[in-house]
Write a structure and sequence with these properties.
The protein contains 17 helices and ten strands. It has 399 residues and is α+β, with helices and mostly antiparallel strands. It has a single domain, classed as Cytochrome P450 (Cytochrome p450, Orthogonal Bundle), CATH 1.10.630.10. The chain has a five-stranded mixed beta sheet with strand order 1-2-8-5-3, with helices on both faces. Strands 4-10-9 form a three-stranded antiparallel beta sheet. A hairpin with a 2-residue loop joins strand 6 and strand 7. It is globular, with a radius of gyration of 21 Å.
């Protein structure tokens, strides 16, 4: 099997192909997407921090100057929303946005959420156990981060059912060569999500509450504040990143433990291993398999020159299994102490929500270990067709 992100067999188990890519050299050119694949941890980690690359090139050149076609007009509502957040922009815009958002999204604020996260997780798990199990993704993994982030932002409970579908549809645009249907679906979701949040943001500007939308609407730093578009783009990013990553780490993680029963037994015997176990589950089968960046100036990776205007695809799933960094990398080890995985990225685009994701995951896994000590797989799961953001369709279990 070769690198083929549209092949269900590859999506289900890409790791043998990754090993071949690492053995074959520092880079490979993937013709179907015109990308340079970067499979090694050292290279991916370095390029994430290299300012000669960017998530966008529009701060240094137009599409035409960069040798690229402009996005079709119908996509404009999608890019207007996503480029108002910090993920798809570069300094100085990124620096300013991250500084302002960080004033509202502080580590202390995140840690203060732990008791509430624990209570939500316990409530979801208790109801799940009472029902005798079911789909762990739909009943526990999805509602937890949706509830936490919706509460944090101040989205009314009656509207929260809208968030997950919007998030999933928007993320479809980030897959490789998305279909025209997926593109239109992402644009529609971005427009609807943006309109909804705009109304909410205006309400909170006039009548602030004890929530993050209100806090971001009030943040001022040396006279600078977030524009309405920036606030909305940030909320969309927090909701999307918060949902997709946490849901998929939970699903992929439990599936990983079921396939490694000795490690699951070890975790059940010593729940104190949970913080290291969560890091290891993110390393061993990361949800974000690929992170793309544009080359703004010629770079060299190994002995290969990658020219300005090219796109590199950093293979996080491969980097996290690199034997140069992780001893016995294909072995799941819930006690692995030295674990510099790059599942949250690195450099200026390191995931702002990483502390919250870690709190949610530790509390979610902990609640399930405690309330469902005999949790077992009921049916072999199926992977979604998506490769870049990779997760299971469902995970049916018994308790």
């Amino acid at each position: 099997m070769k690198f083929d992100p549209w092949n269900p067999e590859f999506v289900a188990h890409p790791y043998d192909v990754y090993r071949e890519l690492r053995d074959s050299g520092p880079v490979s050119f993937f013709e179907p997407t015109g990308q340079w694949l970067i499979p090694h941890h050292a290279d991916a980690n370095a390029l994430l921090r290299d300012r000669r690359l960017g998530r966008s090139y529009l701060h240094v050149a137009s599409h035409e100057e960069f040798g690229r076609q402009a996005e079709p007009d119908f996509q404009e509502p999608f890019w207007r929303v996503t480029r108002a957040g910090m993920l798809d922009v570069e300094p100085p815009v990124h620096t300013r946005l991250r500084r302002l958002v960080s004033k509202a999204f502080t580590p202390r604020m995140v840690e203060s959420l732990r008791p509430r996260v624990r209570a939500i997780a316990a409530g979801l798990v208790d109801a799940f156990v009472e029902r005798g199990g079911g789909d762990l993704l739909a009943d526990v993994a999805e509602p937890l981060p949706v509830t936490v982030i919706a509460e944090m932002l101040g989205v009314p409970e009656s509207d929260r059912h809208l968030l997950r579908p919007w998030s999933a549809d928007i993320c479809g645009m980030y897959e490789l060569n998305p279909s025209l249907e997926a593109q239109h679906t992402a644009v529609r979701a971005a427009s609807e999500f943006s309109d909804y949040l705009r109304g909410l943001a205006r309400e909170r500007r006039d009548a602030p509450g004890d929530d993050m939308i209100s806090a971001m609407a009030q943040v001022v730093d040396d006279g600078d504040r977030l524009t309405e578009d920036e606030l909305i783009g940030t909320c969309v990013l927090l909701l999307n990143a918060g949902h997709e990553a946490t849901v998929n780490v939970t699903g992929n993680g439990w599936w990983s433990l079921f396939r490694n029963p000795g490690e699951l037994d070890r975790l059940r015997a010593d729940p104190g291993l949970l913080p290291t176990a969560v890091e290891e589950l993110m390393r061993w089968d990361t949800p974000l398999q690929m992170f793309e960046r544009w080359v703004l100036e010629d770079i060299e990776v190994g002995d290969v020159t990658i020219p300005r205007g090219a796109e590199v695809a950093l293979l996080f799933g491969s980097a996290n299994r690199d034997a140069e960094v992780f001893p016995d990398p294909d072995r799941l080890d819930v006690g692995r102490a030295d674990n510099p995985h790059i599942s949250f990225g690195a450099g200026i685009h390191f995931c702002l929500g990483a502390p919250l994701a870690r709190v949610e995951l530790v509390e979610s896994f902990g609640a399930l270990l405690k309330a469902a000590p005999k949790l077992a797989l009921a049916a072999e799961p199926v992977w979604k067709p998506n490769y870049v953001i990779r997760g299971l369709e469902s995970l049916h279990v018994t308790v």
